[in-house]
């Protein structure tokens, strides 16, 4: 009887919790005039729907972008702050950018296609697709104005998952001045030769969690830039692309600050780099407390690299540099498509300190011995093949 009482008590609590959980309210873009035929401009319909979503009095609302539809969108900005605690953007169909550069209708800032700004509690999922129609941009001379496809600015508590993102003119996803953002189970694709098509680019943000995703682009799979801290990256397949990069940092004398970065259980196939830290000469600040663990490289040109030799004519005479310290590499294994397995090229004035390498095993693709080189790097190593000379 006593056990039955507790079972009934739990049952009542479950029913009560489900009964009093507020139901969501759904706003379908088709109800606001969107056609979804891939040819008609649906931008205004999306903005009208967003206005009602953002101003809704419910705690939890949904913006539905339905399946089996293709919505043509010009550059647009979904702005907050909004009333609901949680806004779910259910992307089941496809949103597509204009195919030709000349027909884009830019907002004040030409560097973005779809932007979410000043929003808390955003959830974006649904199995749909974002098509940036980047091919025309890659072949144009308007390099500086190539837009990022999806941009999050000054957002908090964001969850992005189960989206296929392809062919952005520039970065596929940019995260700027955000806190507490999770990206998972996404697939990003662009041709290997497509320029500057970073998968995910992070700047000035903290508490970022990226995991369980495939990224195949023409540039960095993930790039971590200045002002960023507390980033956890795991279970990423990267390739083709330029690997996972810290930086570049310190360009034009910038005071760069990056710390608490953890990259683990990631696989790189056919990339130009594996795990990389890159800074410009003449920069300032630091990149520290960075961990790379359980990394697999397959036919990667430069599996492990620290490069402080980025330079420009104006900065070559500068003696300052971004200080790199407390960087660890554990259990990095696989093959290099070049002679090099490890290259640590640190600044002659500042150097790199507290570098740790453990259980490194990287050979050339034919099984022969790869090389390791280092300049101005200081730290320790154990069980490394090839041996890293400056860390012994």
From TrEMBL:
<dbReference type="InterPro" id="IPR012334">
    <property type="entry name" value="Pectin_lyas_fold"/>
</dbReference>
<dbReference type="InterPro" id="IPR000743">
    <property type="entry name" value="Glyco_hydro_28"/>
</dbReference>
<dbReference type="InterPro" id="IPR006626">
    <property type="entry name" value="PbH1"/>
</dbReference>
<dbReference type="InterPro" id="IPR011050">
    <property type="entry name" value="Pectin_lyase_fold/virulence"/>
</dbReference>
<keyword id="KW-0964">Secreted</keyword>
<keyword id="KW-0732">Signal</keyword>
<dbReference type="GO" id="GO:0004650">
    <property type="term" value="F:polygalacturonase activity"/>
</dbReference>
<dbReference type="GO" id="GO:0005975">
    <property type="term" value="P:carbohydrate metabolic process"/>
</dbReference>
<dbReference type="GO" id="GO:0071555">
    <property type="term" value="P:cell wall organization"/>
</dbReference>
<keyword id="KW-0326">Glycosidase</keyword>
<feature type="active site">
    <location>
        <position position="242"/>
    </location>
</feature>
<feature type="signal peptide">
    <location>
        <begin position="1"/>
        <end position="16"/>
    </location>
</feature>
<dbReference type="Pfam" id="PF00295">
    <property type="entry name" value="Glyco_hydro_28"/>
</dbReference>
<keyword id="KW-0134">Cell wall</keyword>
<comment type="similarity">
    <text>Belongs to the glycosyl hydrolase 28 family.</text>
</comment>
<protein>
    <recommendedName>
        <fullName>Polygalacturonase</fullName>
    </recommendedName>
</protein>
<keyword id="KW-0961">Cell wall biogenesis/degradation</keyword>
<keyword id="KW-0378">Hydrolase</keyword>
């Amino acid at each position: 009887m006593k056990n039955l009482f507790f079972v009934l008590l739990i049952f009542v609590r479950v029913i009560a919790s489900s009964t009093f959980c507020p139901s969501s309210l759904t706003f379908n873009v088709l109800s606001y005039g969107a056609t979804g035929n891939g040819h008609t401009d649906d931008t205004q319909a999306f903005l009208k729907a967003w206005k009602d979503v953002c101003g809704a009095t419910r705690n939890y609302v949904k913006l539905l972008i339905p399946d089996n539809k293709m919505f043509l969108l010009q550059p647009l900005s979904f702005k907050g702050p909004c009333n609901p605690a949680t806004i779910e953007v259910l992307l089941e169909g496809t949103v597509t950018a204009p195919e030709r550069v000349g027909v884009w209708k830019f907002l004040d800032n030409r560097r973005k296609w779809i932007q979410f700004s000043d929003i808390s509690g955003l959830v974006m999922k649904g199995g749909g697709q974002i098509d940036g129609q980047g091919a025309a941009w890659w072949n144009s001379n308007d390099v500086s104005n190539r837009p990022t496809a999806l941009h999050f600015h000054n957002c908090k508590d964001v969850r992005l998952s189960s989206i296929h993102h392809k062919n952005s003119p520039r970065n596929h996803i940019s995260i700027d001045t955000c806190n507490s953002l999770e990206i998972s189970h996404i697939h990003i694709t662009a041709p290997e030769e497509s320029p500057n098509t970073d998968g995910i680019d992070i700047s000035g943000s903290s508490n970022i969690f990226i995991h369980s995703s495939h990224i195949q682009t023409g540039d960095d799979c993930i790039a971590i830039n200045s002002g960023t801290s507390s980033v956890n990256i795991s279970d990423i397949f990267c390739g083709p692309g330029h690997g996972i990069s810290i930086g570049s940092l310190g360009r034009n004398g910038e005071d760069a600050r990056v710390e608490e970065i953890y990259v683990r259980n990631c696989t790189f196939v056919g990339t130009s780099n594996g795990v990389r830290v890159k800074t410009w000469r003449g920069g300032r600040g630091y990149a520290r407390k960075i961990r790379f663990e359980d990394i697999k490289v397959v036919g990667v040109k430069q599996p492990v690299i620290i490069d402080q030799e980025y330079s420009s004519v104006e900065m070559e005479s500068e003696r300052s540099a971004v200080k790199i310290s407390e960087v660890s590499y554990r259990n990095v294994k696989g093959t290099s498509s070049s002679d090099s397995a490890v290259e640590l090229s640190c600044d002659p004035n500042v150097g790199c300190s507290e570098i740790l390498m453990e259980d490194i095993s990287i050979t050339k693709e034919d099984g022969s011995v790869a090389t390791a080189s280092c300049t101005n790097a200081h730290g320790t190593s154990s069980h490394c093949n090839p041996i890293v000379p400056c860390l012994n």
